[in-house]
Write a structure and sequence with these properties.
Rossmann fold; 7 strands; about 230 residues; about 15% strand; alpha/beta; seven-stranded parallel β-sheet; globular
C-alpha cells in the first residue's frame, strides 16, 4: 500500500484530496494546523508549516516510521486585497507557507524517496497565474514560485525515480469563496462560468483525480509538468 502525505488537509481541496487517495487505496497522512482534526480515513499529523525546520523534521520522522511515497503540497494562505495594503511581513507569511514549507517538506522526504528509488511530489499551483485576477499579488507570486520549484526539483530528483509535477486548479467551489467575495458571490460565480469552457463549477474531487494520475505508476515518465484543471479557462 502506497503512503501519501497531504498538506492543508482540512480545507476544501485538502479534504477532497484525502478522500480521493483513501478511496484509491492509499494510506493517507493528513497534515494541517494543530487544533484541527483529521479528515475521515486519514492518520493525523498536526504541523504549523510556518515553522520550516519543524515541518522538515516532522516529515523526516514520519518517513522513518512509515515510508512516504507521495507528497501533495496543497497548503496555502490566500487573501485578496490591493497590493498596497499588504505589508512585507504579510507577503513573507504567504511565501513561507505556500512555498518555503513545500521546500522544507521535500527536504524531509526526498532522502527516503531517493534511497528507495521511487517517489511522487505533486505541488498545487493556481489558475491565477494566467494574469486575469486582481488583488492577489502575494498569492500569485507564491504560485509562480511553486511552479519554479516544481520544474527545478523535477530535474534534480528525476535520476532517482522521483517525479515532481504541479496542478493549477481553477476556481474550486468552496467556503473560501464566501470569505473572499462576500456579497459579490453571485457576480464571482458568473465570472467563473463565463471564463470556463466547461460550464460547471470545479469541485475538489476534480483536483484529486489529477493528483492521483501524477501519483500513479503510469505517470513514471511524466515530470516537471504543469496541468491546469480549470474547466478550460
Amino acid at each position: 500500500m502506497r503512503h501519501a502525505l497531504i498538506t492543508g488537509a482540512c480545507g476544501t481541496i485538502g479534504q477532497g484530496l484525502v478522500a480521493g487517495f483513501v478511496a484509491a487505496g492509499y494510506r493517507v497522512t493528513a497534515l494541517d494546523l494543530p487544533g484541527l482534526a483529521a479528515p475521515p480515513g486519514a492518520e493525523w499529523l498536526p504541523v504549523d508549516l510556518s515553522d520550516l525546520d519543524g515541518a522538515r523534521d516532522a516529515a523526516a520522522a514520519l518517513d522513518a516510521r512509515a515510508a512516504v511515497d507521495v507528497l501533495v503540497n496543497n497548503a496555502a494562505i490566500i487573501w485578496n486585497r490591493p497590493f498596497e495594503t499588504f505589508s512585507p511581513a504579510e507577503f513573507e507569511e504567504q511565501m513561507r507557507v505556500n512555498v518555503s514549507a513545500a521546500f522544507a517538506l521535500v527536504l524531509g522526504l526526498s532522502p527516503g524517496m531517493k534511497a528507495r528509488g521511487w517517489g511522487r511530489i505533486v505541488n498545487l499551483s493556481s489558475v491565477t497565474l494566467n494574469g486575469q485576477w486582481d488583488n492577489f499579488v502575494p498569492y500569485v507570486a507564491t504560485k509562480g514560485a511553486v511552479l519554479g520549484l516544481t520544474r527545478t526539483l523535477a530535474r534534480e530528483l528525476g535520476p532517482f525515480g522521483v517525479t515532481v509535477n504541479a496542478i493549477a486548479p481553477g476556481a474550486v467551489l468552496s467556503a473560501t469563496e464566501e470569505r473572499l467575495f462576500g456579497d459579490k458571490l453571485q457576480e464571482y460565480n458568473d465570472f467563473i462560468l463565463k471564463g470556463q469552457s466547461v460550464k460547471r463549477r470545479i469541485v475538489a474531487d476534480d483536483i484529486a483525480q489529477a493528483a492521483l494520475y501524477f501519483a500513479s505508476e503510469g505517470a513514471g515518465l511524466v515530470t516537471g509538468q504543469h496541468l491546469g484543471v480549470d474547466g478550460g479557462w
